[in-house]
Structures are given as C-alpha cells and as structure tokens.
Amino acid sequence: MIPIYDTAPRARHPVIVYAIIGLNFLIFLWMIGLPEPGLYWVLTRFALIPLRYSEPQLAMAAGLDPDSYWPLLTNAFLHGGWLHIILNMWSLWIFGPAIEARCGRLGFILLYLAGAVAASAAHLLANWTSPVPALGASGAIAAIIAAYAVTYPRAKVILLVPVFFLPLFIPVSALFFAAFWFLIQILQGTQDLFASSMGSGVAWWAHIGGFVLGAVFAKFAHALGLGRDIETRQWTGSVPKIPRR
C-alpha cells in the first residue's frame, strides 16, 4: 500500500521539503561510503541507542556519552539502506508540500523537528534498555502524515496496491489512510512490546509518538499563528485518471 498522489493544495515550490530530502540523501550517500570504523563512529554518536540513557555506566564503557541528547534529533537524518530512505523520502514528498503550504516554512521545520524528537522519546519509553541503534525519518514523517490528515481530512490519497503483480490504484480519504496506518502501528507496536525476542526491528512506537505530535500540532497550528503564506496549486479535490493498459 504505497501512496502515489494526493489532491490537497501543495506548495508550488516546497523548498523545505526539497532541502530535507536533499540533506537526507547527502548524508546517506556519505554514510554508505564510510569504512566500517567510520560507520560505527557515526552510529554511536548520532543514532538513538536507548541503552545510552538507561544504563549510563555500561554506555560509557561502550564509548557512548550518556549526557548527549543530540541523538534524539540526529537519528532522524540517518538511514539504513536504499529502500529505507527511498520509502521515507517518497512519503515526505507526497504529504510534505501540502503541510509546508499550510503551516509555512518555519512552521513546517518546527513540525518536522518536533515530530522527530517526539518519535525518539516514544521509542525510548517503549525500548528503554535496548542496545540496538534506531535511525530513520519515519517518526518525523508520521508527524507530517497526521498533520496532513487533520488539516485535509477529505483530501484524496491514491494508493498503489499490488495484487499478484497487477497494480491497483485505490483512492481513499486522507483521514481513512492516516487512521488505518496509525492502527497498524498500534497493533504492531503492542505486539512488539510483548514479544520475547527483539521484536520486528521496526520502530513502531517512534511512528506512534511522531503521529500524535503531528495531530496535536496541526490542531493548534492556527492558534500558533501558522497560516498559509505560500503559493499553492489549485485544489479541485478530484482524483486524477489513471491510464489503463
């Protein structure tokens, strides 16, 4: 289930979305070119490792600084593979421009960074003693998805659903998409909490934390003085025709 198009008014020139996507790809390309010791250095300093805070003595013995809180933010700019970064940045490209248009550039930056930190905090609470590095922008993007659904609940999101190698294009409301997506995170996250192993390896609770922050942020965006101040394309609310083959 991959979102490929939406009908909400998008910023014609979403420069902050462009900048975040570009920065993430630059960091990723730099990381994949690092030798193993260099990659280890990056992960131990900038990825989110809950053990850093839950077991400070053990963390210091492993070379981690328990007094550094930058990883709560910096982990959102690291990715573990091509599929990881492509899916995250594609989602940002689909949902980000509409929120940049609605909240303005400064508001979008605040939402994205706050979503990243909220996602990290939720992941810490759910995985307090984990030694596994967590990284990726999905928590921040979850905040964008939630803000999108709150701001444009009736906008259409066109989903690509492969069925036996045949692509199906299914339009759903933004509210339905976000609610269904959030329900999946809750179910999977709850299952991981009670798993006897290390779980699925997906930071479900980071997604949940980012999503909740995004919904609250969007609800109070107007009160915060974050109004539309960017030129947008016209919103017709219509679904584009998908050519048949």
Give a concise summary.
With 245 residues, the chain is mainly alpha-helical.
Question: What would the keywords be for this entry?
Answer:
Rhomboid-like fold; about 10% strand; about 240 residues; disordered C terminus; three-stranded antiparallel sheet; mainly alpha
Describe the structure.
The protein has 245 residues and is mainly alpha-helical. It has one domain: Rhomboid-like (Rhomboid-like fold). The protein contains 9 helices and 3 strands, in the order βαααααααββαα. It has helices at 15-32, 36-46, 51-54, 56-61, 71-74, 82-126, 138-151, 174-193, 204-219, and strands spanning 2-6, 156-163, 166-173. Residues 67-220 form the Peptidase S54 rhomboid domain. One of its GO terms (molecular function) is serine-type endopeptidase activity. InterPro entries: Peptidase_S54_rhomboid_dom (IPR022764), Rhomboid-like_sf (IPR035952), Rhomboid_protease_S54 (IPR050925). One of its GO terms (biological process) is proteolysis.
